[in-house]
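Why does residue order matter? Because the sequence determines the fold. Keep that principle in mind as you read this record.
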Amino acid sequence: MLIRLGFEIAYRFVQPTPMVVMLDIHGSRHHDILALQPLRGHPDVPLRQYRDGFGNTCTRLLAPAGLLTLSADAIVRDSGLPDRQQPDAMQLPVEALPDDTLLFLRGSRYCETDALMQYAWDQFGHVAPGWARVQAICDHVHARLRFGYPFADASRGAVRALEEGRGVCRDFAHAAIALCRCMNIPARYCTGYLGDIGVPPVDAPMDFSAWFEVWLDGDWHTFDARHNVPRIGRVLIARGRDAADVAISSTFGPNALERFHIWTEETTSAGLDACAEPLPLALAG
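Structure:
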C-alpha cells in the first residue's frame, strides 16, 4: 500500500532565532520513499542536517523575524500489515542484554523509574517475563489513563500521568516505558506518523503520534499503550529515551506557533504526481 504524509507548520518570531527541527522520515524507512518534497522553509532559509546520537536526522536553521513556514510531503510504500506480534518473545536477563540497550533501562526526564520501581513490581512482578509482561503494562496504562488533546502538558512525566489518569499519546508512551524499564525491559520512545488506516476515522485534527519499542528475544518490538491494538501504517521519524530526545522543534528564542497541519492517509499511485517528482529508481528502492 502507499501512504501520503507530510506537514505544514508555521512559527512567528520576533527576531532571528536559531532552530533545530526533527521532521524528516527516519533513515530506516528511506528505502520506502517513492516520492518526496523535502523539508523546506518559506521564506527560503539555509538548512543543514546532522545525525544525533540516536541516529535521528536533525536540521539546523536560522529562522528570520516574522513568519516561517516549514513543510514537506512524501509518498511512502508500506506493507499494509499491522504491527508484528510475537507473543512467545522472551525477556533476556540484564546480564545478557546487548550493551547498546542498557541506556533504555535507565530513568530519563519523563520516565522516572526511581519513583515507580516499587509500584511496577507490585503490579507486574507476578506476570510472566517477556511479551506477556509488556502487554500487561500496556493494558494497565491503557485502562488507567484517559486520552484527550486538552490534557497535553509538556511538563508531565510518567509519574504524574499515572497519578492524574489522563494525558496524550506521549504520556501513555512515557508511562509504559517507565514501567517496562522498572521491570528490566529495555524500552525506547518513538515518534512519527500514524493515520486512521484500517480503523474508524477520528474526528480530530491529525497530529504526530507516539509509541514505544521494547527489546525482547534479540529484537525491538512495537507497542502502543494508547491504542493498545496492532495498527497499520506507522512511519517513524525519530527514537530516543523519551520525548525530550525527539522534540519536533527546539527554538532558541521567543516564538509563537501559528499553524500545525499534519497529514497521513492511504493513497494510490496517482498521488505521486500530486506530491513531487518520483525519486530515481536507485533511491526509491
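The helical segments are 113-124, 131-144, 158-164, 169-182, 271-275, 281-284.
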